[in-house]
Specification:
The chain is α+β, with helices and mostly antiparallel strands and 164 residues long. 32% of the residues lie in helices and 17% in strands. Keywords: Membrane, Transmembrane, Transmembrane helix.
């Protein structure tokens, strides 16, 4: 009579092998490292996009104010102060610490000639050029004349005298 053998049976393993786990961890580590490396670049792009949007809103506010005022004889430089959300700030008021942008509007200049005018020495009487300088700085006394022109944004605009 034969007795049944009691030799241990091999149980099939139910998991991943060591090389498979090592490869999976390597791929995951590479992906995470790549994402973490791109994070500062993405944050920098978001910050720049916010600066561009805020600068555009500030410039639109100033130029809209000039368009609506019908002023064609501004003889002195005007300064405007804005917070980080493009809202006007009074430099003498209690929120003067909120200043994030300083804008300077140059006097209106009548130096525009329309094309097709026979007398090229005559400037157009109804058009004025205005220049807006905008700098992101908390310093209310920022001097644009002493600064490098590449350190601030410069916008040139034409104001038309319309109406009566």
């Amino acid at each position: 009579m034969k007795t049944p053998s009691t030799s241990p049976r091999l149980v099939p393993s139910q998991g991943f092998s060591l090389p498979e786990v090592t490869l999976a961890l390597g791929i995951a580590a590479f992906g995470i490292t790549t994402l973490l490396g791109l994070l500062p670049h993405g944050l920098n792009n978001i910050r720049k996009a916010g600066d561009v949007a805020t600068s555009s809103r500030i410039t639109q506010q100033i130029l809209g104010r000039l368009d609506q005022s019908q002023a064609t004889t501004v003889n002195a430089k005007q300064r405007f102060y804005f917070n980080a959300y493009a809202m006007p700030v009074d430099p003498a008021g209690r929120k003067k610490d909120d200043i994030a942008y300083v804008a300077e509007v140059a006097p209106l200049v009548s130096d525009l000639r329309l094309p097709g005018v026979k007398d090229s020495s005559q400037n157009d009487a109804f058009l004025r050029r205005v220049t807006v300088k905008l700098k992101q700085t908390p310093a209310a006394d920022y001097v644009f004349d002493d600064a490098n022109p590449s350190s601030y944004k410069l916008v040139s605009y034409v104001v038309a005298k319309t109406g009566k």
